[in-house]
Amino acid sequence: MIGATPAFVHWFAVGFKETAAMVWLTWWPLVLGFSLSGLVQSVIPRDALRAQLGTNSPRAVAKASLLGMLSSSCSYAASAMSRALFARGSSWSNAIIFMVASTNLVIELGVLLYLLLGWQFLLAQLVGGVVMVILLALTTRVMFNARREAQLKTRVLMESPPSEHSVGSTWRDRLRDRESLALAARYTLGDLKMLRKELLAGFLVAGFLIVHVPASWWSHVFVSGHGGWTVLENALLAPLLAVVAFVCSIGNIPLAAALWAKGVTFGGVIAFIFADLITLPLLAIYRRFYGTASAWRLFALLWFVISLAGLLVNGLFHEIHLIPANHHVSALDGKFPLGATLVLNVLASVVLLATWWLAHHARRSTRSATDPVCGMTVDTSSPAATIERDGATIYFCSLRCRDRFEREHGPEGAGVVEEPGSDVRDPVCSMRVSPRDALSAVGADQLTYYFCSESCRTTFLKGARPPASRPIQLGPRAADE
């Protein structure tokens, strides 16, 4: 027993050392990536793009992709925002394209991918992302015809009626706005806090895999030495490995580096990177959002598109001789280089401290709010979910965070009257109305309620249970100010 302890400790120490080495090498690129992402999110308004996603035209598809790239987020938040866009009027195809782009075509993922795997993988990610968007635009209607899309729309609207939506300021206005820098700091810290678990899990799993799982084990899972059949098998199987890995978003990148180091093909690694939207927790969320049958269809659609994109990218890069010949990954050597890496990491730490100070000491902006569960900074013009508490709106990045908040604090009843002068919610249909020109009535609790129409007012006075009485909405409470 005494002799076994050092071996056990050594096993863990080697794995943690590999993990720490990866974090050391990627610290400054991560801070850089998240900082740039925060700046983009704070400066680029997304309202005008959201309003034009109702068709499946090439322009609408391009705008859905661009909106996803500007809405950097984790996979959970991306799935919730995709549902919110669908409820607000986006086509089903564009909602799915947005979800894919917001997790696979974002700045911080590209920076980490470049450092761990090289520029060829970064280029493949960008090319593959475009390929996936095109494939989704062409194939979504095959799995979800007009009748199924209409059923999904009805389901989403019954659970979460959309609210009104306004267009905010332009990016030029925000560049001149002194609040934008502080808002960028909050986005940066919010994204880091939101994704810290995925990142830590990805680094830990990759560190232990690379040093403790022999190459012979991987050869039993991913075949090799059979030419085109190897590429096909790897591209089909790698997404399924992602399903059970439970690590999504950019946490997949360290695992992808481990797969490449163990001999998985280029196309298989690319398919694994793109598969962050079909992990088991995400599939459970799809089932809740859209029902079991639609969740399975969405899984099949994403798996097909992910695998085909991996195959096409592999074939293209093979033809133009851009697939790296060496599977060695320098970031997985367990080394802690000093010199430039030390200087850059120190500078990154200083920048992160300055970002923290700015985020916590600057004047709060009406353009953003903090999710009280995960800490993510939420754009108040397009929250994934909200609830009303004591006359105030609480914003969440996803229904997952909202549900956790309600489990911990209990659900709130309907009919909350908000601050004077602001728009309030019709307790029957959940539409936001202005108290200045809306119909009103006094309820049994002696509070004044406002209504969008005489029909809603009559329903309320008859004492019928409001069909939308839950204080939950998908959409904005107010436009950017």
How is this fold's topology laid out?
Layout: H1 4-43, H2 47-50, H3 58-70, H4 75-88, H5 92-104, H6 107-117, H7 119-143, H8 146-159, H9 171-175, H10 179-212, H11 215-221, H12 228-245, H13 252-261, H14 266-274, H15 280-290, H16 292-319, H17 340-361, E1 368-370, E2 377-379, E3 385-389, E4 392-396, H18 399-409, E5 424-425, E6 432-433, E7 439-442, E8 448-451, H19 454-461
Antiparallel strand pairs: 1-2, 3-4, 5-6, 7-8
Helix pairs in contact: 1-6, 1-10, 1-17, 3-5, 4-5, 4-15, 5-7, 6-7, 6-13, 7-14, 7-16, 10-13, 10-17, 12-14, 12-16, 13-14, 14-16, 15-16
Word description of this protein:
The chain is built from 19 helices and eight strands. The protein is mostly helical and 481 residues long. It folds into two domains: 4-356, no CATH class; 368-461, no CATH class. The strands form four sheets. The protein has a two-stranded antiparallel ribbon. It has a two-stranded antiparallel ribbon with strand order 3-4. A hairpin with a 2-residue loop joins strand 3 (385-389) and strand 4 (392-396). Residues 163-167, 413-421 and 464-481 have low confidence and may be disordered.
Keywords:
two-stranded antiparallel ribbon; single chain; globular; 2 domains; mainly alpha; 481 residues; two-stranded antiparallel sheet; 8 strands
In which range does the helix fraction lie? 55-70%
Q: Give the count of helical stretches.
A: 19
How big is the Rg? 24 Å
Q: How many structural domains in the coordinates?
A: 2
From the spread of the alpha carbons, the general shape counts as: globular
**DSSP strand (E) fraction?**
5-15%
Give the strand line-up of the largest sheet: 1-2
- Distance N to C terminus: 66 Å
Give the SSE string: HHHHHHHHHHHHHHHHHEEEEHEEEEH
Low-confidence stretches: 163-167, 413-421, 464-481
